[in-house]
UniProtKB/TrEMBL annotation:
Its EC number is 3.6.4.13. Belongs to the DExH box helicase family. This is RNA helicase. Gene3D superfamilies: 1.20.120.1080, P-loop containing nucleotide triphosphate hydrolases. It comes from Pseudolycoriella hygida. Residues 465-633 form the Helicase C-terminal domain. PANTHER family: ATP-DEPENDENT DNA_RNA HELICASE DHX36, ATP-DEPENDENT RNA HELICASE. The gene is Dhx36. GO terms for molecular function: ATP binding; DNA helicase activity; G-quadruplex DNA binding; G-quadruplex RNA binding; hydrolase activity; RNA helicase activity. InterPro entries: DEAD-box_helicase_OB_fold, DEAD/DEAH_box_helicase_dom, DNA/RNA_helicase_DEAH_CS, HA2_WH, Helicase-assoc_dom, Helicase_ATP-bd, Helicase_C-like, P-loop_NTPase. It is an enzyme of class 3 (hydrolase). Keywords: ATP-binding, Helicase, Hydrolase, Nucleotide-binding, RNA-binding. GO terms for cellular component: cytoplasm; nucleus.
Amino acid sequence: MQLHVCFESVQISASILLSSLCPKNILGKLQTSKIFERLKLTIKMSKSVNYIKSASRLRNELRSRTVHERDITNERAPPGLRGRELGMWYAQRSKQRKEKELEKKLLSGPSIYLPSEKVEQLKKEIVTLQANTSSDLSSRVDSSHFSRYRSANFMELIKTEKEAIKLHRSSELDKRLYDDFQMTTKTKGYTQMLEFRQKLPSFQHIDEIIDLVTQNNVVLIAGKTGCGKTTQVAQYILDHALTNMEGSKTKIICTQPRRIAATSIAERVATERGEELGHSVGYQIRLEKIPPRSIGSILFCTTGVLLKFLEISPTLNEYSHIIIDEIHERNAITDVCLALIKKIIEHRKDLKVILMSATLNEEKFVEYFNDCPVIHIEGITYPVEELFLEDIVEETGFDNFSKDTRKEPIWCQYKYKKQRINQANSFEMIVGNYVNSLRGKYSQKTINTLKNPATETIDLKFIQHLIQYICCNKPSGAILVILPGFTMISQLHDSLLKDFPPSKFIIYPLHSLLTGNDHRNIFRKPPDGVRKIIVSTPLSETSITIEDVVYVINAGKMRRPFFDFDKGATIFEDEWITKANEIQRKGRAGRVQKGICYHLYTRGRSNVLEPFEKPEILRIRLEETILSLKVLCIQDVRHFMTTLIDVPEMSQIDASVNCLRRIGALTDKEELTPLGLHLAQLGVHPKVGKMLLLASIFSCFDPIASISAALSFKSPFYTVMGKEDLCNRAKRKFSPDSDQLAVANAITQWRTDSINQRSFCHSNFLSHSTMVMLDRMKSQFVQSLYYSKFLNDSQTGGIENNRNSENVDLLKAIVGGGTYPNIAYRSIKIRKGRRIDKIITTESKRTKLLPSSVNGDPNAQYEPGFMVFQELNKFTHNYYITETTSNVSPFGILLFGDEIVCEVRDGVHYISVGGMIEFRCNSDTIDIVVALRDNFNRLIENKILKAAPVSWDSDEGKLLTVIMDLLTVRNLYEDYKYQDVSDDDDDDEIKQSN
DNA sequence: GAGCACTGC
């Protein structure tokens, strides 16, 4: 009998830790789903009880806990119900029945009988291991390293550390800085730029800014686009200090939400001062920095970097001024920083805080910072004429709005019937009435056209007609079209290429999946007589600025993702933009001259747009935020959250705290654990952290580090519009059955080919800049794990770190460990001579693969089998799984997944994992799996309490070797290949999946 | 019937 040992020193056993290190979305889902109940139970069980327990008993116990409604599945309708009510009653009954059936169903996996000689060999090895694994772990706990994080308190730290303010005045230094600045102002570079700087509207406010900043702790600067606040304010403060002999106690930090902004603004400011970066101006973003001189200087950084600074020095005692830019965007990190700063200034009266925002919703910030003074600065954008749908239809005479562009299957039409009726009603209410009020002001033809609800769905024919109209009737100037998604961009791009001759038009698609920042042509002015047309996602709204845009076509919709806890999927839906988006899009037309913005919706619609986006902190899962707060020594996270500008729901916080607890990052008392600290220091999501830890232990670090970096940042593979097939083929060359390994292999080959890296990237559709970034991230991972002693080689590619990096089966199993519990099964059916691939997740959802996945080639013939995936998405009506790896060993899932249950039915042994997949096997195989899991979980506990590299000559090394041996057993389930996973009708499952 | 929002340490 295998007993699961519970150590007092660890609040949560390592098996739970392992089992629960799963993606935040899945963790979120677990909260509400039946699996959560299952997990809660297994946690209890695993603490002291033998975990080999009958699956049916487990299910029964679960059922008794999950019955929250009256069970009516076997009842008859109560007498007295008639007509509609009776119908509703039966509908509810059948729904409950279905749910119950679904709950019972485990995805039945293949048989996994180990060959008998293998069984004997593994058994022998395990016996020798077990004789030697009774060391007392609790005595080896090294708690001194993280005790600070449990005992210290952010507010106390501020109080004690404020004494150690590092800004001391030195008249000698003041003089030197003064002289240096006087020299600067005489240089040609400085004087040339000065002329331009003086024309900026903010220049008129210098005195006001300086006065208010001197007299107050907090000042808000609300400036319109083009007023120069971002580049000038920090300089005004610095210049004032330098000329008044106060340079030695002035150090300014200025945060930006995006990396590109931080670096490009720093460059710009350095140029304006006639300097190189690193003198009085510098920047710091993740993995990249040019620090300015230590005093009398400005540092531009991302908000995330500021948060890291606060971990080291809670009072920010190196700095005299903090400027937080773009606070109106309401990023989660920015909101957290504002709350922290509010606490810091209570104790650091000398600290000056300057908040900068666009001129919208500034009252909210003023109130938050106790009526701090506000400086309003006007912008110098050129006037932009705004035309709405009624004006555009009137002007262009377009009346051919298609009723419904897409043919839909019957079930879709049926399913969305109600939704459609609602939409039509709301259209009538909002737009219909408005259109009626236009009588007399617009032609009857226009009014009739606008009465069609189809005018509110994006019609690419109409957009193309409008572009044509602009090109024929309006003066030269670039056209920017803002659309919601890749498909529309692609379609419009293609049809424009067909109809607009390249001699007169140059057309760029702009999307984050495309080469994006790598090709600069998009910013160049086209030759005379050639018109530039950019078809873009909303990323051109803030992230990318194309100066010469004169015409903006705003389609009015935006694709917003939200996580559906019931479906366990990230759902993408096109929704109306906000008023704030509308203003921002309009502003994009007037950067260099006066422009026109075409809104493809009526003023009636514009009037009912929501004013602002919901702040990010209210929309996202809070695990990572809470973890960083814990590392900042904020013990009472719940209380802290109430001090934010917008307070998240308590249930939202509870859910995230519970997740962190199950991950093992927090204890039951919500204290940070060593693992939590490791995960926070790695700066990746817990699931990625898990992969990195597994890779360190199994000594296959380099490829997994590549994968981890790509998962945390982005895939280096890009797409070229019109060459999608070539791009996908290039990716498949690197791995036939794993998207993640394709990335890892691409990075390895890129690294090896050190001479022709750029051409290597070019010929394989890889982004060189992303590769460089990923490479740096890998170094950061290896350093972090080296310093915390998980690795004993500080190079990602070091031999010690990569004993098993060639073992593809191991790599796949670890990827599966990091993506758990996202598992899907591909089965093949031959119907009327046609192959039908059916991919089902463990939640019984039928999904598809994107053609960009190496496992999603529509022309390939894949073998049936398991795949693990990163995320489940829903676009329009279909579910898709992304970043897949197929042919993962079932033993990988059994070893790195969560609790396993073994049972015997009709003389056949079964082993199931996480209550999701069940494998047929024999008792020998079960014994081996259980023994290995048990030993491996103990090894993990051991490693986390006291990090140390694996010694491969000792028992732990032997254990890992045995596990790898098991993972590489092949051809386990030949018999299973062409068997169906379920006998259900296809249609039935489609219904379930929706 | 079927093709992909955007950031950050």
